[in-house]
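Interim report, section 4.2 (structural modelling).
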Amino acid sequence: MAELSVTELSKDLRDAIAQLEVAGDLETVGVVTRVGDGVAWVHGLRSAGYSEVLQIETVDGIVEAFTLNLNEDEIGAVLLGSDEGVSAGAKVTLKGTVLDVPVGPELLGRVVDPLGNPIDGGPAIKTKQRGLVEREAVGVLGRKHVHEPMMTGIMAIDAMFPIGRGQRELIIGDRQTGKTAIAIDTMINQGRQKTGVINVYVAIGQKLSKVARLVERLKEEGVMDQTIIVATGPSDPASLLYLAPYAATAMGEYFRDNKQHALMIYDDLTKHAVAYRQMSLLLRRPPGREAFPGDVFYLHSRLLERSAKLSDDLGAGSLTALPIIETQAGDISAYVPTNVISITDGQIFLETDLFNQGIRPAISAGLSVSRVGGDAQTKAVKSVGSHLKLGLSQFRELASFAQFGSDLDEATKSQIDRGQRLTELLKQHQYTPAGVWEQVASIYAVSEGIFDKVPVAKIKEAQTALLTRLWTDHKKDMQELNKGGEKINGDSPFAKLIEKAAKSVVKGFED
Amino acid sequence: MAIRLSRRKIASYYADELIAGRDIVRSLAAYLVDSRRLREIELIVRDIESALADRGVVVADVTTSRSLTDQAKTAIQTYIKATTGAKSIELRQLIDDDLIGGVKVAVPGRELDATIRHRLNLLKATKV
Amino acid sequence: MDYSTSFNTFANAAADPEKTGILASLGIDWMLLAFQTIAFLILVVLLGKFVYPVFVRIIDERQEKIDAATNAAEQAEQTAAAAQEDVAKLLKEARKEASAIVATAKDEANAAIEASEKKAKSRAEKIVADAHDQIEKDVIAARKTLHNDTIDLVAMATEKIIGKTMTGAIDDKVIAAAVKEAK
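Predicted structure of the assembly:
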């Protein structure tokens, strides 16, 4: 607990006086020639490098900036703070470093800005290490294929579009379709399942009230202790919005490089691209498509490439990325969405229509895909989920046919019935991520047709009953099943357990 | 239209002219008016100074809170020679009451700020 | 009466060849006897041919009816037993089902209670933690203010004091020292 004391006061005084005795040295200096919109143009400082930090002396202290344009006659630098105190003629010195942020376990449970300063009112963060904001991604030899599961706790995702540790899976959809909800559930699931995965959530230009609510929620769920939140609000300078994902990735990389597993959530990269566009236009770089600068692809590719599964030689840590992109009216062919889709290893597409029909999470089975997660799926989930995706997309096709009211044969009808039940089953409330055994038991009960007699509207109730039954009667087995190492088919003892429990549960729900 | 020359090239040309002992004021003024770059005049002067410094001629601004004694002046000149390796030095003296005490020596591209004001500013920068 | 007479005549006639004496004495007439025998045989044949079958049929039919009735009775009994069994089975199943439902309900209730208890507990803990947090934050904020105020104070004091005491001689010394120390 922090305490106020006289000793501290005297120490402060002593430090202050000691500071006065430091004499200056001959420094390389430049001068601000123009300033505005968060960009300062500096004359001099010929030795400055790209992305190097500059310190601008102002009346109220020092404002930092980093160089982005190095021209023959002047330097374009983006201010990391308010441009209010900065005036033309102000002295500029080199800090002597490129941008770096504090990294380490001391950051866990904290809310920081992209420079690593706490903004949660807590004590100053003292870390042993600092990490480079712009860092090159791991090379080919330092990597390994993605093979461990990163369970999101969302049945539709884990069963159909599994995500592995070290994968980059895009979450894309219009506004208000539950993109952030998926990300948050995934974070909560890391706490519930005690996976030990470190969450790093990056809010890029998000309303700070939203961030505050998120922090509150994570604390309630007890996940905050393994979470770092890097927050920037809409009123922050574009430079901070631009830096936020890189700085946060540096924080995540610390865990990746120390044999741990971290999960990055970039919420969202659309705003990041917009912030970068603002900076680029102010730096007078030529605009391209949708007024974005030419290197907007590189902007995101170099960021997401840092997410990787490391080889055993490097400690086998991993950094998984869940970037979020917001589309306008479902248009995934806009510039930034297509870019990020092509960079990532798959996407989860959320649809407004499904969301409004009450199918939440509103995951589109047709447009979503996971390119590498299959290897990472646990055997148990894989065995029950293998036919799920196919069955659901067939059902969607048949259901649209059935709307024409033609007579249907028995096979089609039963396929539609099964499909309806599966759709119903995959609905999941927010903040209720499911473990492996819950997913396996639920999907098995429905896809094997045991729940066919349960009315569609009561599927969720039946599922709850089944899970409670299984947990109270066979806790040990379920804990074993939760490890997910075994295939679940007709012969496995788990399947028999589930079948028995499901059959007895069904009796309570028949018409 | 003529190609827009970079300031660095202009400065380097005029620095050579100056060292050769020619008067450049009229020529430079005419060029700036002609190429509509009057707004850059201060920057060009700075660039010429730094081009001169590269050629061993250093123009230094010395700012103090009161006029310099000869002793201090020599000390400063030796200091500049030692640090920049200049062949010839020209001091421009400026007086600024606000500095309280100490000296600020500015040579092209570099600066020594040993004023009391600067120290106070640095102290204020340690506020959290 | 006709019969008895003819029977007698027939008996007389039959007894005649061997012991006419006894037969005759008994009044048996052989002829009559033979005649009566033939008549009797004819009667038997006639009866056998036309009368008995009717009787037999009637009796058979009755027997069949009785058998059928018995069967029916038996079957009824069996059905009744089966029905009873079914009822028992249904009852048993119903009971089983009921207990299953009750178990589920109980499980759910338990889960709900547990969840709400947990929620209440975590909420209480959270309130305490929040209070602690708040206090800590206040202390940190106070510290920060103190630190900044100290710096301001030192800066202000230094400025005032040096401003008054600074003379040309001191300044020269400061300048000389600065130039000497600087690299």
